[in-house]
Write a structure and sequence with these properties.
The complex is a heterodimer of chains A (706) and B (230). Chain A has helices at residues 2-13, 17-40, 43-53, 116-124, 161-167, 186-211, 215-227, 232-268, 285-305, 308-311, 332-346, 357-393, 397-408, 410-442, 466-472, 496-499, 547-556, 566-609, 611-619, 624-660, 670-688, 691-697, and strands at 71-80, 83-92, 111-114, 137-141, 153-158, 170-172, 270-271, 274-275, 453-457, 476-484, 491-493, 525-527, 536-543, 562-565. Chain A is of the alpha+beta class. The radius of gyration of chain A is 33 Å and the shape is elongated. In chain A, 41% of the residues are buried. Classes of the chains: A alpha+beta (706), B alpha/beta (230).
Chain lengths: 706, 230
Amino acid sequence: MRPAWWMGMRFTLAGRNEALARLVLTAAGVALGVTLVLLTLTAIPALQGRDHRAAWHGTTAASPATAADRALWLATDDHFLGRDLFIVRVAALGPHPPLPPGLTRLPGPGQVAVSPALSDLLAATPADALAARLPGTLTAQIAADGLAYPEELVAVIGQQPDQLRTAGAAEVAGIATTAPGLLDSPALRVILTIGAVGLLMPVVIFVAACARIAAARREQRFAALRLVGATRAQIAVTAAAETCLPAAAGVGLGWLGYLLARPALAAAVTFDGAHFMPGDVRTPAGQQLLVVLGAPLLVVAATIVGLRRAQVSPLGVRQRVRTRTPRLWRLTPVAIGLAGLATIAATDLTDPSRGSVATAQTLIGATFGALLLGLVLAGPLLCTLAARLLSRLSRRMPELMAARRIAADPYTTFRAISGVAVAALVTTMFAGSAAGVGANLDRPDPDALRIDAVEVLLAGHPPQPLLSALTADPGVKRTLLARHDPHRPHTLAVSCVELSTAVNLTCPDPPSTTGRTPEGLTGITRLDPPDPRLPAYAIYVITDGAPLTGERIRSLAPPTVTVSTGHDLTELDRRQLTELETGLRTAMLFVLLVAVASLTIGVAAGLIERRRPFTLLRATGLHLRELHRTVLLETGLPLAATTVCGVALGLAASAAVASATNQHWTAPGPAFALTVAAGLLLTLAVAATTLPLVKTVTEPTTIHFE
Amino acid sequence: MTVIVEGVGLRKRFGLTEALRGADLAVRAGEVVAVMGPSGSGKSTLLHCLAGILRPDAGMVAFDGRRVDTMSDRQRTQLRRGAFGFVFQFGQLIPELTAVENVATPLLLAGQRRRTAIGAARAWFDRLGLSGLDGRLPGELSGGQAQRVAVARALVGRPRVVFADEPTGALDTAAGDDVMDLLVTSAHAQDTAAIVVTHEPRVAAFADRTVLVQDGLVDADEDAQLGVTR
């Protein structure tokens, strides 16, 4: 096998410009793929890391002992302007109490330890809006070990044991170390896998496009070797040797790229509004080794599989089997996907009684998978149909040539543009969903707090003196006390008309006293008018709408009282939508760029392979502009056909999901249409950059015989 | 002389086209046979079937008494490597390898050490009148020079049979004569049989015997009439 290996190296290093181009581009493609895989693999460790770092938040009386003495522990989840604020009140019951991570000692009574982000926030915020919730003097800062993410707001407040016992604190012997596992769900893994595959697919297509550079010449060379007695195994070794070098270089560069991109990724990516700790954004060593060793093996295996044609016979390309016309069965996955969309549209995913979340996730995952696979499988068929139409309509040589070329090998034609088609589907699907979600966020959500309202759930606390303090706040316009009837669970005793000033609901007209559920308010009924003898349940506060008013109300409330503002949920939704938008936009830009690069290489490789017939055509009088027209049509027509299908499927998918989640579906606006048109034009413009190559490689003076 | 390569009742069809319709041909050891015939008559298909490149749909091919048509791909590859040599009209030289490396390729593939293989290949360059061109790439050689390198590559492993398909098809008269002279002289010197497909009587004249292929059949009468000994 040594001579075969030597020949492979010779072909790589001493080959012509095409060999060098293939080497460089394949290495670049592999590098990109390796970097992407390694960066994607950081997602789970990063999420697990955040989860693990937050494990101590779950400390309870049942937590295993970690210290000699005990401590009193009262943890509350608070908020500040849409950000989570974790506050724990502690009191040591001995000299060696359990210690949360990030602290060297437990704060004593009157002492407060805060995270760096909370320290900065305290300095920039009026005291009555935030500092009032943290009674005591700042004496320590919580180190990174105790933070789930860099901008986490955490406070550990030292208090007197008696004070804490009265407030209902638990006696703990240790700090919890087991992560709750909230961020490592199977659904998240599925989403990450789909995302990784979505990003990797264009890269794989790019590497395949690089491998096709001068493929005909390469196959002829292998056929010549077979003719003089090279075995299939020797050809495989030669091809493997040819691929090994760029693959190895690509893996090295890719790993370097991962090391360089990791800090940037940690600095740029946010999840749930927060960055990850840089140390957590790291692919485990075993997985790194697997990728570094596995990537070249995969590339070599793909090369050997791709050799089949050259191994058919020592006559090589002269014996090439005619490409089979794509059949109608290729539409099956799309049909399954469309059936799945119809099922999703007819399902109410918001109704938990209509099936489990896992079933809904499986249905959605399978449907989107079928649509993506369907587009990729149906692509060659679409290209063939477009070619037939062009052939039927063509009146001139360029159209006919382009139609014949597409029809002769629709698989290669589609491979070059498949990345753009897939990007069109995913982008449209997201743009359609985002338009709907955005529109829904702008509409009042039934049964939700109004934007200027605050809900204070008293949890057994008497309404006074809080009610008086609230009334004294300059930002509070009005308060409303809601009561509940102990004999009628889930019953709210409040005037519906009054409640409707704080909550989005429509009251029955005329007012009913039968306890009928008002329209828009689900899960609870009401008594109308309220009975003042019933116990207080909640205070609804109508404010001036200023965000800091809500925060002052939170500061006034006792620790165990839950305060929600109208901003909370919409802010969370908007933040997640913005994160999703940014992430997907970046991913789609990347996919489009890689797809355009593949397309350009594919067009250039096709030109180089057909230089001889094109040169002869030019020599016999075909104008250069007619060749240009042929090349552009070969790319533009299938591109337009498959992109239109991708956009249509994307719109259908977003409409189905909107229907299933009871959201109002809004078609993406003119901006999206312009983006799609601009993307198509950009793709064609980049493909057109290869046109000067047509002139260069088809100069009639280059006709020569080897 | 004993028959070294023999095809009996060879049939081969490509789609609707029947290229061979029961062709028979026997070639003796050390004999140079020219296969003539009009375009599309099946000459090249006959050559490829005899060389084990194509498997006939029916009929039998034998080399040195062994059935070739029933051999596995691996066995046929071994035959091509050790017992057969090939000269085609175009493209059989590997553009990335120098002329001497091209000639050495069969020896390298057979497992010879590189230095030995290159040394044996270089010895052919003086015989070919190509001294000083051994380090050139195929693209830097003229058509005649490239074909002479191809002849050297076909003969370097001292094969029992050389199969040549229009070896002079892309050359002018003088260069074509040079190549044929080299091929026939070297084959005779090594006692190597040669089957040369050509449509030029001038090229066929270099052979010991000429057969005519027409409509997928070897014309027996023509074989008899054209059979001449140089």
